[in-house]
């Protein structure tokens, strides 16, 4: 269980433009986002001694960013081989590294040319070895295809409907309409969702997140240090990472997973809330990992916002809208802001807790949840101002 | 699905007996000889008790649909554009483990959870045979 409640804080966030074609290298994106996070915090590059990132063979290593930024004191540069499930893990790891004396000020980033370069959603390398010898030969290859299998199972077990998936898509787009950095700002309706092209049943085009070029960065430091910096600190109340038994041979694999009607969130929720000392009812704004509409529904259940199987009903009737009981994905999420693999959810949570979210600000937001991951393994943070 | 451009399995030391079984049109499952657990996919150790010792048992070939998808958008396009729509299902075998495979011999819209299916084998190349499943009861024409 997380025992570092309130000891560490996010003192700066940075990001690039999100686009379909950045026209620059991933290293350029990464160093821009990191530089922006330092400027936001008002911290000099000479103070940064840790850099942590995650990559799916589509990014640049932390040491390259430390070198590119000219960080004279960088001594702890670490990369996780992971997908969006690590977006909150890197923040947790940064705090743990500081606690252990390995670093004092740590930059976490995610950077990729996810549309103009390596397209994660378009399929993996087309091989059939290791675990993929049992999936790819049957034409089960892309992440939308992987996740559709989970979603179908939820529908089988709990009667979840496409219209309920649509409610998530519409909510994210409504929020993106107020976000000037969102890639998709044109509002959509449930009818638009219903009429969208079928990609892989049960997913239509609007159930699937964007592909984006861009980068986000987050600066983690000690709580006391953060209070001396430029921005209001956002404290890390709780952090959890993991999943259940039989997490599989890689991110795609879930053949041995107990049942695909639930995911990692069910297994880490207790750790998260106990560590944070608060519960789901205390959350003012939730940035839920939304690589697919379905993943929001199953995580709302897993993190205890509603009982298992009732997430489909929970997302309807405006409950997750900005003026609802639980505002989610106030930036538009991966579905409508950009696919920066979940680190953009952390950036948004920080802006909400600082009161800097402009037209999409949730009044009085004090506690935020961010989640990362959709399948057998994932991470989450509880943040407060 | 008879498109040979699709990725074909590269058997390894853990899976070679399984793929050899498929060539012989037998669905072989790894069985732990310590705890008796029957497993898929086959790995170096029993995921239940950690033992390495095992033998292989021939599955009945019967199972039921645990979950399924219908692929409409081909990924990659050049490989699957003539195959869509096709069905990939997680099949729960009578022996317990689940595996992924195509379901053939029925309209995608006719598939339902719990539907009984039976294995058959498609000889794709000289070396590689893939298991696939077909509804045990032929769908009644409508
Ligand atoms: Zn065993």
Protein model, in words:
The complex is a heterodimer of chains A (385) and B (142). Chain A is an alpha/beta fold. Chain A has one domain: Thiolase/Chalcone synthase (Peroxisomal Thiolase, Chain A, domain 1). Chain A is 31% helix and 19% strand. Chain A is built from twelve helices and eleven strands. Chain A has a nine-stranded mixed β-sheet with strand order 3-2-4-7-1-8-11-10-9. In chain A, a hairpin with a 1-residue loop joins strand 5 and strand 6 (203-204). In chain A, helix 1 packs across helix 2. Chain A is globular. The relative contact order of chain A is 0.19. Chain B has 142 residues and is mainly beta. Chain B has two domains: 11-58, no CATH class; 60-142, OB fold (Dihydrolipoamide Acetyltransferase, E2P) (Beta Barrel), CATH 2.40.50.840. In chain B, the strands form two sheets. Chain B has a five-stranded antiparallel β-sheet with strand order 6-5-4-7-8. Chain B has a three-stranded antiparallel β-sheet with strand order 2-1-3, covered by helices on one side. Chain B has helices at 16-23, 77-80; strands spanning 28-32, 38-39, 54-58, 62-71, 86-93, 98-102, 116-123, 129-135. Chain A binds chain B through residues 122-123, 126-142, 144-145, 148-150, 152-153, 156, 197-202, 246, 249, 255-256, 260, and chain B through 1, 6-12, 15, 40-41, 47, 66-73, 75-76, 79-80, 83, 86, 88, 90, 97-102, 108, 113, 124, 128, 130, 132. Strand 5 (198-201) of chain A pairs antiparallel with strand 4 of chain B. Zinc ion (ZN) binds next to loops of chain B.
